[in-house]
């Protein structure tokens, strides 16, 4: 059998790259445009602090500007539009005149900062900020690009809003946690704190250090920042990536055990997997075969070997369903974020 101890984090599992950071590698910026963000890229940004940039593509910028112009025209004409010139939920039939549309958005952000509990992991918050900016780049949110530039600047500079872990329903949006992010980048709340490269400072001070001024939200912008599932998607994405990593490690550990036991390699021969045709088992076996040699056909039969092989085959089929579920779920969440 070939040596595999150096390959535990360098394989591929169901199309997901298991990333191991090289301390000497150069961190290149990841450019997001609303359609190209992947699970791997999100992990690189949120956990490994890779730089990220907003796309300067003319179509991306143009669509964002058009959506802002549409909102401006609706407010100027006092046309009814949910959450912009009307109230929310059960009060959606209550209209708001144009001159109060801006105040409505700023009050919306302020009213939802009601979280409680311990502070969420910073990597989850960073991932949520990237996901929210990425959703806005589609150009259907009616929000100025400057807010997404602030989100990405915070991420790149290591400035992370401190968000309590409890307070989101996830159905119509992660309103409570995202309100902390929105408030942080606007700098309107002196009581809201951020982690500024390891130092806790209030939001206005963080903006001052980054060279920004306190800003108020225009009509629709508070809603655009709050009404999405970016936080739950961030947590689910990181958990999914960890699952893939654990699976890759499990497969490689199995191969190490086979090597240590000088066990039979015959049950893993590609011919047998082709005959069985269980997709999950075939995929896992293909991964293991990178580290199992068939040149030496010597067989050492042990009861433990057969038990080990049986468990591995059953496990492979179970992983097939788990990975399919996570792959589809995370794809939908990342690619179909509410704008």
Search tags:
single chain; 339 residues; mainly alpha; Fumarase C, Chain B, domain 1; two-stranded antiparallel sheet; elongated
Provide the domain count. Answer: 2
Q: Tell me the major beta sheet.
A: 3 strands, antiparallel
Enumerate the strands of the largest sheet in spatial order, edge to edge or round the barrel.
6-8-9
Q: Give me the strand/helix succession.
A: EEEHEHHEHHEEHEEHHHHHH
How many beta-strand segments? 9
CATH superfamily of the largest domain: Fumarase/aspartase (N-terminal domain)
Basic shape: elongated
Radius of gyration: 25 Å
Low-confidence stretches: 1-25, 296-308
Protein name: Histidine ammonia-lyase-like protein
Pfam families: Lyase_aromatic
GO molecular function: ammonia-lyase activity
Keywords: Lyase
Question: Topology of this structure?
Answer:
Layout: E1 12-13, E2 16-17, E3 30-32, H1 39-46, E4 52-54, H2 58-76, H3 101-111, E5 116-119, H4 122-136, H5 145-157, E6 159-161, E7 164-166, H6 175-186, E8 193-196, E9 199-202, H7 203-210, H8 221-226, H9 230-261, H10 270-276, H11 279-289, H12 303-335
Parallel strand pairs: 3-4
Antiparallel strand pairs: 1-2, 5-7, 6-8, 8-9
What report would you give on this structure?
It is a single chain. The protein is mainly α and 339 residues long. The chain has two domains: 33-228, Fumarase/aspartase (N-terminal domain) (Fumarase C, Chain B, domain 1, Orthogonal Bundle), CATH 1.10.275.10; 238-335, no CATH class. Helices cover 52% and strands 8% of the residues. It is built from twelve helices and nine strands. It has helices spanning 39-46, 58-76, 101-111, 122-136, 145-157, 175-186, 203-210, 221-226, 230-261, 270-276, 279-289, 303-335, and strands spanning 12-13, 16-17, 30-32, 52-54, 116-119, 159-161, 164-166, 193-196, 199-202. The strands form four sheets. Strands 6-8-9 form a three-stranded antiparallel β-sheet. The longest helix is centred in the C-terminal third of the chain and has 33 residues, at 303-335. The model is unreliable at 1-25 and 296-308 (pLDDT under 50).
